[in-house]
Amino acid sequence: MPPNTFEDCEIEVTAQGNVSAKWRERSAKALAPLDPKDLNWSLGLLQASSVDRDTLRHIGEELFAKIFSDPLGKMLWKAIGEAQAGGSGIHFRLALEGAEWARLPWELLYHRDLGYLSIGESFTLSRRVSTSRAVEPSRSFRLPISILVVVSQPQDREQLDVDREIEHIKSALDIWIRQGLVQVELERKPTIERLRELAKSTPYQIFHYIGHGDAGRIILVGDFGREEGVEAARFADLVCTDSLVLALK
Fold first, then answer.
1. Backbone dihedral region of 98: left (phi > 0), alpha (psi from -120 to 50 degrees) or beta?
2. 104-142, pLDDT tens digit by residue?
């Protein structure tokens, strides 16, 4: 079953690259600061004209290894165990000081046993940036911005109030939609095959999932409209495209 609540795990990266984390009453600090030279190579890969899924996963693994080196790594695994024992998930809240760190693709944080921290069933991830100068984006948006909203409502799952959420999205973006700056495409029957087709035919820059998930799986629509669970890592492989800049759920 998916967690009902998410507990915060605060992770701070200072302008000097010092990393610290706090979980409940426990805290830890990295033994050595991050070196931007060890991480900026990822920006070059992301700015290439074509980026495959293995490369995205590799970038995520390298970022994970750098930021969760011991003793932060030991605290992370303890936090995951404690959260799971209590039936809760973890919200990783990144506090980044300076544009140097804000430019990095932290949303790709990945571990083979956890999947992507930004889209895992038991994890969410957000960032807060404190900087005195403009942040150079790692990838740029091309206008009009294409948003793919995927709604998964299998017949054998509790029916969510998805129409209300869709209306909120369209209402929030209304002025840009009317100006032709944003395009929103809605997919209500997200089978695995349909997502493959969309990944090939639709150059969406933002992917937004509305639906169910449990035990590290995203719930799609299978045969006869019934649920089909897909592992989070496989789901990421299905929806990640060269044009993708941001994924939400």
1. left
2. 888 889 999 998 888 777 888 888 877 554 545 555 567
